[in-house]
Amino acid sequence: METQISLAGNVGNDVEFVCGDGWSLARFRLGCTPHWRKGSEWVNGETIWMTVRTSGQTAVNVRDSVRKGDPLVVVGRLRNRIWTDEAGARHERQHIEALSLGHDLARGVSTFVRPERMPFDDDEPLAPDELVAAEDAVAPDTSAAEDSAADGPESS
After folding, report:
1. Angle at 54 between CA 53 and CA 58, to 5 degrees
2. CB contact at 8 A, 41 and 47
3. Lowest CB count within 10 Å: 12, 40, 58, 81, which one?
4. Are strands 48-55 and 90-103 parallel, antiparallel or unpaired?
5. What angle do CA 11, 16, 18 make, to 5 degrees?
6. Helix, strand, coil proportions of the chain in percent (round to 5)?
7. Which CATH topology does 4-143 take?
8. Tell me: the pLDDT tens digits for 55-67?
9. So where are the chain's domains?
């Protein structure tokens, strides 16, 4: 059974895009901050940061459409990666494998442009295993900087 999830939040960093012969991958962080009314004021909860990944033509479209700070709605599969590093320490990381993404039209307007289809296979893997391992090894932990970026009134 697949675990599907939908998130609404703000893009926390510039989209990272890599491609090779017959594959492409886009990745970014999405900050989701719950907020509610308490009396006459709005209160923000704790921001949750999720890595969002997508591949193929969707990755190309994300590269060309998504910018840091954009409000997005993301629908995808919740994925969990577990690995052991060279020192023998066990690591675990969750991310969203995005199936559908779009600007949050409750928070602004957007214009849709249908690009020419690229010859990507819909069943392609997100990226070669070596790339996934390399991205885990070199990805800096930017959550502290992203947390401070989400503290403004535009974070939700």
Report:
1. 150
2. no
3. 40
4. parallel
5. 150
6. 15, 45, 40
7. OB fold (Dihydrolipoamide Acetyltransferase, E2P) (2.40.50)
8. 999 999 999 999 9
9. 4-143
